[in-house]
């Protein structure tokens, strides 16, 4: 009998202690991220009792033609030794091949050292998170960020009476109307990645309070023209899940980005970094995220595990 059950928003209280104890800063270790995308990736989880205590296993796959994808097993007591992690994963996979992804460089190193003949670990560039120094985003100093300042100043000049307002539950319906209009303008029906993101956004808004998300919107003449969703993630890191703006409002992206960052600086003075998640391999998104000059990219790795050859 398969011990895995579908991930639901009510599982946050159970999973959060494992996710936070991992100490990992990758965006996939946020419960909000897991839940937002669980409708697309069909995310399931289970807890397994071992001699070293309970382990949380999280797996997903978009369709039955691909192997299951697992995150590295999580414990309430720090990192899990690779031998224990592999033994548990092979047991629950019932000797079927599987993917082990979202690996930190440390986990990749441990697995490679422990199983040098069994695993081939590769970086997954499309899943690297973009990590920015909070002061860089707040002040946009330097020649390389001059274009961002130009866009921002153009917005402030053209729309001096804009409003920057926290999103309450009463605003969610209007935010979704704006989001769907943005989707129509950007041609989501022709872009599977954007269409999937819209599904994730709807899930985030439906569980807005339970997930503990923070949201802000920009209004001009009463109309929402941009919004963003994020959450305090680690003591030194704030995680931004979504940022949307109508493209005809020059500088709207730069303004809502900067205003959110300034809010974070004021409310969470210990935060040093902003994690703006990965680019999912989208060339336009990659260019946009690189143009903000990240402090570094958070590398992630993956390996495929095949069952032992039968005699």
CATH topology of the largest domain: Aminopeptidase
Span from first to last CA? 26 Å
Helix content: 25-40%
What's the number of domains? 2
By oligomeric state, this entry counts as single chain
User: What sequence of helices (H) and strands (E) makes up the elements?
Assistant: EHHEEEEHEHEEHHEHHHEEEHEHEE
- Any idea what the shape is? globular
Number of strand elements = 15
* Rg of Cα set: 21 Å
What kind of sheet is the major sheet?
A: 8 strands, mixed
Secondary structure tally, helices: 11
What is the H level of CATH, i.e. the homologous superfamily of the largest domain? Gcn5-related N-acetyltransferase (GNAT)
Strand content: 25-35%
Q: What's the CATH first level of the largest domain?
A: Alpha Beta
Flag low-confidence runs: none
Query: Kindly state the mean pLDDT as a whole number?
Result: 94
> What would you call the structural class?
alpha+beta
CATH architecture grouping of the largest domain:
3-Layer(aba) Sandwich
Q: How does this model look, in words?
A:
A hairpin with a 2-residue loop joins β2 and β3 (53-60). The two termini are 26 Å apart. The model has no long low-confidence stretch (mean pLDDT 94). This protein folds into 2 domains: 5-128 and 299-305, 3-Layer(aba) Sandwich (Aminopeptidase); 129-277, Gcn5-related N-acetyltransferase (GNAT) (Aminopeptidase, 3-Layer(aba) Sandwich), CATH 3.40.630.30. The protein has 11 helices and 15 strands. The chain has helices at 12-21, 31-41, 82-92, 105-114, 134-139, 146-158, 172-186, 192-206, 208-211, 252-267, 283-290; strands at 5-6, 44-50, 53-60, 68-71, 74-75, 98-103, 121-123, 129-133, 163-166, 214-220, 223-234, 237-245, 273-275, 296-298, 301-305. It is α+β, with helices and mostly antiparallel strands. The strands form 2 sheets. Strands 1, 2, 3, 4, 5, 6, 7 and 15 form an 8-stranded mixed beta sheet that branches. Strands 9-10-11-12-13-8-14 form a 7-stranded mixed beta sheet, with helices on both faces.
């Amino acid at each position: 009998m398969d011990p895995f059950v579908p991930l639901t928003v009510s599982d946050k209280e159970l999973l959060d202690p494992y996710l936070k104890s991992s100490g990992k800063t990758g965006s996939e270790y946020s419960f909000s991220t897991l839940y937002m995308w669980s409708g697309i990736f069909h995310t399931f989880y289970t807890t397994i009792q071992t001699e070293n205590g309970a382990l949380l296993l999280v797996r997903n796959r978009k369709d039955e033609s691909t192997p299951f994808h697992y995150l590295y097993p999580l414990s309430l007591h720090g990192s899990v030794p690779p031998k224990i992690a592999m033994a548990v994963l092979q047991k629950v996979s019932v000797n079927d091949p599987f993917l082990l992804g979202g690996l930190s460089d440390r986990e990749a190193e441990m697995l490679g050292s422990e199983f040098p003949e069994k695993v081939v670990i590769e970086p997954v560039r499309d899943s690297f998170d973009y990590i920015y120094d909070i002061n860089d985003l707040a002040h946009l100093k330097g020649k390389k960020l001059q274009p961002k300042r130009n866009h921002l100043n153009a917005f402030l000049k053209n729309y001096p009476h804009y409003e920057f307002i926290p999103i309450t539950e009463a605003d969610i319906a209007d935010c979704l109307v704006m989001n769907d209009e943005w989707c129509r303008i950007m041609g989501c029906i022709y872009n599977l990645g954007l269409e999937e993101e819209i599904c994730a956004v709807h899930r985030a808004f439906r569980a807005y309070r339970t997930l503990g998300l923070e949201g802000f919107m920009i209004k001009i003449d009463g109309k929402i023209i941009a919004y963003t969703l994020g959450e305090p993630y680690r003591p030194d890191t704030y995680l931004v899940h979504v940022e949307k703006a109508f493209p005809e409002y020059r500088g709207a992206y730069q303004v809502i980005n900067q205003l959110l960052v300034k809010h974070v600086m004021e409310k969470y003075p210990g935060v040093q970094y902003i994690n703006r998640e990965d680019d999912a391999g989208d060339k336009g998104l990659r260019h946009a995220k690189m143009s903000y000059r990240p402090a570094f990219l958070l590398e992630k790795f993956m390996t495929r595990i095949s069952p032992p050859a039968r005699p």
